[in-house]
DNA sequence: AAATGTACCAACCGCGCGCAG
DNA sequence: GCTGCGCGCGGTTGGTACATT
């Protein structure tokens, strides 16, 4: 009954990987693939490692196209807005950031981004479009500081009609396939939960993409996520390639006229609350969603304007016409 | 220069789910 | 239907580098 034991834990090496081990693992996988069996892999590859450890090492470090180094403002925004929407679902967030792993994002969030947000949680007064986030305010500039934990802080709502209050992240150059009309309409349909689409394996999450998305299924989301399963199909970073966050990303991202780096507007409040109340955030969000009282904001996809060809639907691959526009503010 | 504190990140750990047997 | 393993995930830890005192 059952399968063979995972590994002989007494005979397994732990700790940092040596260059030799890395080379062995990489060489083996490049030649033979994972074979869909991580447990058997280390033995085949001649490694005294647990399969789990091999998997982690490969997915988080050795795999091709892994991005290391600084996160861009664009990535910051995506992380923050997704965090505000779905909480600490790092694999999902990683699916939106080509080349980044969930572990990477998680570390970045815990060590930098969270502090960056918490340290700059000053909400600008009405009429001031920019929430300074990522740019610490001088003490004299903090006259409008609002205690983020104050119960008097209103809950987030979809911002007003000013399009400059929105950031638009299009998978493609804003001047390309996403028509202005579509974008405009999208702005006017800022409703509903997060909707991502296109889900061929592309994530650099420690989930290798094959499991999370291969069957359009995220096990945890299915059971207690606030986001419906069919709304969690990443917008396929691989489809867009690294372009989305590449050197040309400025061409793809229309920040709006009043934008400044790391402006999150109201969503900062949600993020803050999530940070301060991580344990309950998912439950709350789930409840909200289940009650159709979804209070999500800040990271909205154009649902209505999706036009999916039968082919793309069948293959779960977005066509260019299928490209949605991702808005966040 | 040494001690201490802090930040960062790779890796580990434990849990839940799905599936093989 | 039951058992137990494989896998994926998120949380946590430990080691190292850097900063500060």
Q: Averaged pLDDT, please?
A: 53
How do the strands of the widest beta sheet line up side by side?
A: 2-1-4-3
**Count the strands?**
4
Count of structural domains: 2
Uncertain ranges = 1-5, 121-266, 278-329
Fraction in beta strands: under 5%
Overall radius of gyration: 21 Å
Give the termini separation. 53 Å
- Which structural class matches the secondary elements? mainly alpha
**H/I helix tally:** 14
Q: What is the string of SSEs from the N terminus onward? A: HHHHHHEHHHHHEHHEHE
Helix content: 25-40%
Largest sheet: 4 strands, antiparallel
Shape: elongated
Q: What would you note in describing this structure?
A:
This protein has 2 domains: 50 residues, Homeodomain-like (Arc Repressor Mutant, subunit A); 256 residues, no CATH class. Helix content is 38%, strand content 3%. It has 14 helices and 4 strands. A 4-stranded antiparallel beta sheet has the order 2-1-4-3. The longest helix is centred in the middle third of the chain and has 17 residues. It is elongated, with a radius of gyration of 21 Å. The N terminus and C terminus are likely disordered. The protein binds a DNA duplex (21 and 21 nucleotides) through helix 3, helix 6 and helix 9.
Please provide a brief summary of the model:
One of its GO terms (cellular component) is nucleus. This protein is mostly helical.
Features:
329 residues; mainly alpha; Arc Repressor Mutant, subunit A; 2 domains; four-stranded antiparallel sheet; 14 helices; 38% helix; 3% strand; disordered N terminus; disordered C terminus; DNA-binding; repeat; nucleus
